[in-house]
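[09:14] KT: can someone run the structure on this one? pasting the chain below
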Amino acid sequence: MPSCLIVDGSKVVRKLERRILEGLGFTIAELEDGKQAVDYCTAQMPELILLDWHMPVMTGIEFLRILRAMPGGNSPKVLFCTTESEVNHIMEAISSGANEYVMKPFDADIIKGKLEQIGMLIGFV
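[09:31] RB: done, structure tokens below
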């Protein structure tokens, strides 16, 4: 089963994302801030990361930049899931290394569609 790290400051959002991704066959780890995610990825790199922008300690965009500079940090697919809807935020996320971008609120079909677009469901579902 492919591995996914969910990084979001909201426990409710993490629970929703977990339910969606477990239904798609992913094994899940959950964290609430970017600093925890850096530590996690240093120890083990997931195949997929669902990432929020606004979190305590370290933002999602700060984490993403650190991730992409780490050894092996270019391998995970990163799906930004955030309330930030301005074009400049979307462009910043993509230019910083996000593979795709989803605006909250979202549902299982939206997440599944984005995962298909970035090649994360081929052979898994």
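[09:33] KT: thanks! The beta strands are 3-7, 27-31, 48-51, 77-82, 100-103.
[09:34] RB: yep, looked fine to me
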